[in-house]
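Hi team,

As requested, here is the filled-out complex form for the zinc ion run. I kept the field names the same as last time so the parser does not choke. Let me know if anything looks off before we queue the next batch.

— J.
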Amino acid sequence: MNKCEVCGNEYDQTFDVVIDGERHVFDCFECAITALAPVCGHCGCKIIGHGVEAGQHIYCCASCAEQEGVQGLRDHVRAAIIHRPYHEAVLSKSAE
Ligand SMILES: [Zn+2]
Ligand SMILES: [Zn+2]
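And here is what came back:
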């Protein structure tokens, strides 16, 4: 039986995660996230999705990056807002 390196649980269905050639053993994803997930540079939450990379830093979302003074990502958010009415218009038109 393998032992989870985070909580110490001995479990017959552990899984391995290999990062930079180093093997880690976990009994569940929560423990894997606790040990390995990067932390948002602004709010400190664990990043389990793609996150947003800005130079050496990583953030959970564009809003957090913006609050840390990362300007480039704000334009993408704005662009998404600008495009939303277009998609809504297309969707309501096809529903008729
Ligand atoms: Zn565990
Ligand atoms: Zn954040």
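Two things worth flagging: The radius of gyration is 20 Å. Confidence is low (pLDDT under 50) at residues 74-90.

Thanks,
J.
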